Amino acid sequence: MTIYGYHEYPNVLEFDTEVVDSRPGAVLLARSLLHPGGGGQVSDRAQITFGSGVAAIVDVSLESGRYWHVLDSAVEVSGSVHVAIDAAHRLRVAQLHTDTHILNALVFRHFDGALVTGAQIAADGTARMDFDLPEVDNDALRRLEPELNEAIRAALPVRASYVTSVEASATPGLIRSAAVAPPPTSDGRIRIIEIEGLDRQACGGTHLSNTAESGPVRIVKVENKGRHNRRIRLALANQA
Ligand SMILES: [Zn+2]
């Protein structure tokens, strides 16, 4: 079985492993530290070095319970490989992902426990979150930007821990998405991300270990999506 280690080893970005299956342009690895994406988060990218060359891993695709690492060319790879995760891409996504938790916490706090109905974190330094907020003025959402940046500057510690799925569903506010709960780990536990003093929720994505590792963000746009949903677009201020 393929073991994914990005939760246990969030700071290890290079590893050696073996190809256990392959087809032109994709490999299955015995072990991988890439985040496979999911829940709206784009996957990690990496460089893979093998016997006769090098290729880029541009996506991770879940097929029948197996994580195929998709390459940028139709090369066929086998044997021992060295993988180096794209650190800049990982950091850009982790910044935005942590910032969406802060935004989510502020919306949850200011707007009476409003739930997330969708989220997407892209490779280009932008993200969007949809909230079930039928009654809210869009300007009230735009005005969250200074508080969002205050929480970033406050250097709040971010920690991961685990609870049982029973405890997760019994704790109000822990499952924050209206649409999907994060998948439990193989032993049935749910991963919890806590931003000290601000937010605690179930999530499987990649995050910073301190909010000040994020640059400042801008709320680029707030728009209506249907009768109930408000969509907030965020961008890292130094990318937009
Ligand atoms: Zn998260």
Secondary-structure blueprint:
Elements: E1 3-4, E2 14-23, E3 26-29, E4 31-32, E5 46-50, E6 53-63, E7 66-71, E8 80-85, H1 87-110, E9 116-121, E10 126-132, H2 138-142, H3 145-153, E11 158-164, H4 165-170, E12 189-195, E13 199-202, E14 217-225, E15 229-236
Parallel strand pairs: 1-4
Antiparallel strand pairs: 2-3, 2-8, 3-7, 5-6, 5-8, 6-7, 9-10, 10-15, 11-12, 12-13, 14-15
Helix pairs in contact: 1-3
The protein binds zinc ion.
Describe this structure in words.
The chain is α+β, with helices and mostly antiparallel strands and 240 residues long. Helices cover 18% and strands 39% of the residues. The chain is built from 4 helices and 15 strands. The strands form 4 sheets. A 6-stranded antiparallel beta barrel has the order 2-3-7-6-5-8. Strand 9 (116-121) and strand 10 (126-132) form a beta hairpin. Helix 1 packs across helix 3. The protein is globular, with a radius of gyration of 19 Å. The N and C termini lie far apart (41 Å). Bound molecules: zinc ion. The site of zinc ion has 6 residues, from helix 1. Zinc ion (ZN) is lined by residues 97, 101, 193, 203, 205, 207.
Mean of residue pLDDT?
90
Largest sheet: 6 strands, antiparallel, barrel
Q: What coarse outline follows from CA principal-axis ratios?
A: globular
Beta percentage is 35-45%
Low-confidence stretches: none
Order of helices and strands: EEEEEEEEHEEHHEHEEEE
**Which small molecules are bound?**
zinc ion
